[in-house]
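User: Predict the structure for this protein chain, please.
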Amino acid sequence: MPSSLHGALMVDIAGTWLTAEDRHLLRQPEVAGLILFARNIEHPRQVRDLCQAIRAIRPDLILAVDQEGGRVQRLRQGFVKLPAMRAIGGVPNAEVLAEHCGWLMATEVLGVGLDLSFAPVLDLDHTRSAVIGQRAFESDPERAAQLAGAFIRGMNQAGMAACGKHFPGHGWAEADSHVAIPVDDRELDTLRQHDLIPFKRLSRQLAAVMPAHVIYPRVDASPAGFSRRWLQEILRGELGFDGVIFSDDLSMAGAHVVGDAAARVEAAFNAGCDVGLVCNDRAAAELALSAAQRLKVTPAPRIARMAGQGTAGLDYRQQPRWLEALGALRAAHLID
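Assistant: Here is the predicted structure, written as structure tokens:
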């Protein structure tokens, strides 16, 4: 009897090419995607060739990367050095420039054969969180929503779906969830009046959301990514979001409160995550895969919505829109 529990995994690889072990892992039906990191990337043609090799094994895999701009930009050599999103809000015509930036980012990512960048960041810059900081568009929630909305329009025009992160907001918690368990002790009403606003305003434009490995003890004792209260009652119920929910990396310290990799992936699926990311730890990925197989999870059909709709190819630099976007961002001194 098929499981009624939806779930799938997104994994990673160690190098710039596929090993036999990688190929075996990617053939598993519980694996729905692959995320690339800086260690996997040399230059545009190498990334394109790697993506083609992956698609030869599993054409349906969602291939992702973190290409936000600023310090979080995995594609570097041969790609435009994008500004941190905080820089955009401080210049005239910020919404136009945000749209250009979203289009430029998405065009480059799609051009090498990837589907998705986990962007934009919808956290607010409360000047408390070093891990968020300049990654956020703004401290004002309405302005952050406007700029992120323009960035999403650019992404969509290029053919890329958007993933807002880190729900319900990581900008207040000071700890870095990569190495610790952050806590945000504000009331739900305070979050509704501030950090939740960008997610609420953009809930119809977002194809995906990534929850934070942050505990909000006045709302739920579990980190948001393991909380049915956050994911089912608030994100899906209150905000009306019906897209894909990607967990943040389940290997991060902020997720360890739940247990080992098998316990984490089971908790994420039970809370409502469609895809569990297990990165930078192949042993953890194998444990998570075994758990997914034991649970007999099936991938949610909505995951297919994340496939890139742009045309893969490295000739995007010849497009008039490319020159227009590049010129506008240079004129605003946002890129070199």
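Residues 8-332 form a domain with the TIM Barrel fold (CATH 3.20.20.300).
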